[in-house]
Amino acid sequence: MKARVHVTLKNGVLDPQGKAIGHSLNRLGFPEVGDVRQGKFIELELAETDPAKAKARVDEMCRKLLANTVIENYSIELVG
Amino acid sequence: MKAAVLVFPGSNREGDVAQAIELVTGRRPQMVWHGDGDFEKVDLIVVPGGFSYGDYLRCGAMAAQSPVMAEVKKRAAQGVPVLGICNGFQIVTEAGLLPGTLMRNSHLKFVCADVHLRVETSQSLFTNRYQAGQVIKVPVAHAEGNYFADADTMKRLEDRGQIAFRYCGPDGSTVDGRGNPNGSSSNIAGVFNDTKTVLGLMPHPENAVEPMFGGTDGKALFEGMVEALS
Q: The domain A2-79: what is its CATH number?
């Protein structure tokens, strides 16, 4: 089973990298782009076959290492 | 004062801080490799600057989970003083020894410069050789030094006097973010834990201890620790 984790900055946390990306896109001829928030995508290969157990374990991984919950949110998606 | 300096893959200021400690104590600190779960009893643990684990995932995130940091957390809970400088500050916040976190500099550039700092309190084992309000000049060198904490944490830091150093102008002013090199909240350059036994700061006092470095304002930090811990 695979787990896909998205880590994003919490609302209200300034994202200068997202801003810079937005500016660049505007300059490249995409004026329709407004606010940009960037984050991380992490894909994990898991030996676990029980989705509930897998999700609980990945949740623990997120809290311990993959996300910094002071500034980041995370979401978990299980595939296959 | 017996000190230990941690060394991670990618640390690069461990020699500088070891030299600064040797300068004021006359003895070389113990260098402790990140994979070591145990080390000699010491009066001070230093987490030095650098790019531990290549700054993968987030600065300090991987190092914070290393075997040596589990031991550091245990000792910090027993009151053993911990000093985290630059990447060391990032590591100790990721390890949960200090509140908040260090984000990418607001202007997205690496900053390498001498900065002015205002010492916010002399009431700690780290800052007892300074006067509250004193302005000192030390270098910074980082891309992720933008201190951030939520509003409740910021209020608690202010109320409890846990802010150690603020970036400021040469006159000590912090008005309009004066002297702030990275967008840090409330111009914060360094914070204590609630017992003031853990200090994390982005600037490098260890690189301002001899006149040939261009300044000696960082030396009092090391002298103060020696006085408090010997």
A: 3.30.1280.10
